[in-house]
Amino acid sequence: MGIFKKKSEVQGVDFNALPEHIAIILDGNGRWAKRRGMPRTAGHAVGSENFRKIATYCNDIGIKYLTVYAFSTENWKRPEDEVSTIMSLLEKYILEAIEEVTKKNLRLRFWGRRDNLSKNIIELMEKAEKKSEEMTGMQVNVCLNYGARDEITGAVQKIASGVLDGSIDAASITEETIGENLYSFGAPDPDLLIRPGGEMRLSNFLLWQLAYSEMFFSDKLWPEFDERELDRAIIEYQKRNRRFGGI
Ligand code: FPP
Ligand 1: distance of its center to the CA of 46 in Å? Predict the structure, then answer.
């Protein structure tokens, strides 16, 4: 930890005012590979390695929650070989995580629909969640087969059936009721959203939870987004004046 801390301090990160929760949209893997004359799938392989590196850095400097958009409900539209490469990279990541969560003190959670996924990956996800549930370090939320509108629709369905069976009084539904029915229940909202890859949009990511998050858009493609760029995002975040609708 010391070495990271020192490097970052030089660049002006205030370790007493870190964002508690960082969310990242992984973007730019395909373009990174194409620019090097490689198949898009090679970009995803480097991108998943980079996620390990950035997650380790976040854990080392003391970030409490890290949420990553790894595969959306819309990503099924991609060519079959690209989808299967991403799924096997995720499988590999989860397998390694099962081995390492205790040593790294990480809690792993998966946010997204469990249908459409292979039985094998679902079993691995459940195993990783179970093995890591008692860990007290950083919580990593991997959004897999995730879409924010789908998440909110699911919450509405659950609440509506509660109203129908009489367990929920419609007039007493609050923002908390909705929050309790989202995948993110139990985690604070992200303080900082980072999107590499040059695009400035949310792409159906955490639409409810990002209501008051600060945003950092980077032109770097995800495979080249390094610890120094993360420092820049945190420094930028620390300059912002968060008012949450107040003055
Ligand atoms: C976006 O880049 C990236 C994805 C849709 C997939 C990201 C998933 C992985 C790297 C798998 C492993 C993940 C983890 C968390 C270990 P893009 O293909 O949209 O890039 P482009 O905009 O350049 O085409």
Answer: 10
